[in-house]
């Protein structure tokens, strides 16, 4: 499949950059906002009461590490949209408006909590100050101190002048810049990056 538009109405398993997974049916996708709506259907078990209404989880595609399509798979020449008939009535325009408001508020919170960095010769361009790289850099600077966080090239981040974090800034993208010896700061860097992603995930959920 060439784009996320093609997995609408398919059952998928989504894994984020923290290696956390969630399964559900892709209800909608917005390429403009880079988010998708995942419908999570509650299942009745044993003598438990009937399940509540379906839940809809909004996921920022920038945080997606992998997507696996689950069964039932579409048959040959069958479009994913033919698999399921719509069960819930959702105003897509209202949903997109809600997403716009949520993302705008998240950006405002992120801007308030991030301290601006002095101009450097490296790192993203000034016009990209709201990029994922800049957000991660700013939050790590707050947690570890400005003196311990530097740009390395255009989009890599160097911590304690020893630990390198490369795009997309996942835990498995942390490496020791000084390959001749083990860095004593490696675990501290991993812990700080994990906290940054958990905080960012809470902001995206509107928490």
TrEMBL record:
A Pfam cross-reference name: AD
InterPro entries in UniProt: AD, Lsm12-like, LSM12_ABD, RNA-processing_Lsm12
Region (Disordered): 107-131
AD domain boundaries: 88-201
Protein name: Anticodon-binding domain-containing protein
Top-level division of the source organism's lineage: Eukaryota
SMART domains in the cross-refs: AD
Gene: MPUL0D02620
Coiled coil: none
PANTHER family referenced in this protein's UniProt entry, alphabetically: LSM12 HOMOLOG (PTHR13542)
């Amino acid at each position: 499949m060439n784009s996320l538009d093609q997995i609408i109405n398919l059952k998928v398993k989504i894994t984020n950059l923290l290696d956390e997974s969630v399964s559900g049916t892709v209800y909608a996708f917005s390429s403009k906002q880079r988010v998708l709506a995942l419908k999570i259907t509650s299942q009745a078990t044993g003598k438990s009461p009937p399940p509540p209404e379906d839940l809809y989880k909004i996921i920022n595609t920038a945080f997606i590490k992998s997507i696996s399509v689950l069964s039932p798979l579409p048959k040959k020449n069958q479009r994913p949209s033919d698999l399921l008939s719509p069960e819930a009535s959702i105003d897509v325009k209202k949903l997109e408006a809600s997403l716009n408001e949520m993302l705008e508020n998240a950006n405002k919170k992120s801007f308030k909590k991030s301290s601006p960095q002095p101009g450097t010769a490296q790192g993203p361009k000034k016009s990209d100050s709201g990029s994922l790289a800049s957000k991660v850099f700013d939050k790590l600077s707050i947690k570890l101190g400005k003196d311990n966080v530097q740009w390395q090239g255009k989009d890599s981040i160097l911590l304690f002048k020893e630990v390198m974090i490369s795009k997309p800034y996942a835990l498995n993208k942390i490496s020791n810049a000084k390959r001749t010896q083990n860095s004593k700061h490696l675990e501290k860097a991993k812990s700080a990056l994990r906290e940054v992603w958990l905080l960012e995930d809470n902001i995206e959920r509107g928490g």
